[in-house]
Amino acid sequence: MARHRIDKQARDILIGLCCYGQSKSEAKRQIEAIRAKEHNIRAKEKAEFGEPRTLLTPKAPPGIYSFSTFNNYLYHCTRFVNWAKQEHGCKTVEQAKPFIKEYIQETMYSDYSASTIKSIHAAVAKLYGLSTELGAKDSIAMNTPERKREDITRSRGQAERDKHFNPEKPKNKEFVEFCKATGLRRSEVLAITAGQIIAYKDIPQFRKDEGKIAKSPTNQYIIIHKNQGKGGRVRYVPILTKSAVDLMKGKPTHEKVWPIPQGQKSIFTKADIHSFRRDYATTLYNLYAKPIDQISENQKYKCRGNLAGVVYDKESMRNTSEALGHSRICVIAGHYLH
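The chain above was modelled as a monomer; its predicted structure follows.
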């Protein structure tokens, strides 16, 4: 039987890890239950032997739960195995395994950002069923550079593409206002149809009972389906302005809100949509945030690093995180609120 190319082998392994449609949250809860027992064992071992001997189950679930994560990991793993083939003559994924740390070390000497290096580390670890967590089973933990908010360059300040997009042009202005009123990702903006608008009263009760629907000042939402958003989950996005509501309600339900003309691959390619998401996040957070001196200590999120001294309302952060499609409030503190 002919052996597949090394990059095809890596792709097949990652495909086998795909868990689209399954609950990542449930997988995490199961792992947390196992780790709680392991922590108890480690505490007893430390008391008896002076140090724990049991390794922890890795925090990260073993599967891949979103299309974007798969594509990101496939890109990094393909680069890794092709590097191993070129530098060490590896013909199989297994032959490349001993060179993981060497490859990660090389990325640290390159121009990659701390976030990219951590993504590469996580992708290659996933390929081999390993962990990047120190003290975990099957760990390939390394001291990779620390992510710092001040090092983030995306949507910070003027970029070259900003020169080619005039937000004041009538059609551009309408698009910008819609993005700032919905906070959608580029792929989501281009995928939604007018029929995806829904009033709060029409949202299924079981969705409301999950407690993951953010408040909306208009009581109108856009429902993002599993195959449209990041993370493969249904999400209800608060619409902030009446003009965005009117735009959607003024179109036939089957029609895309922002259709791509025939012969074009995309539209508004020079628009910095991530910066509009940041504006949306800040607006939504401020709508519902309580004065810091009126909330209890356990409801305060205290920033560190270059934002030391800044304090946010956790409840409003959770509300904003759900709207943006993020599960961790630390993400919006570091990347969105301004």
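The chain has two domains: 6-147, 160-335.
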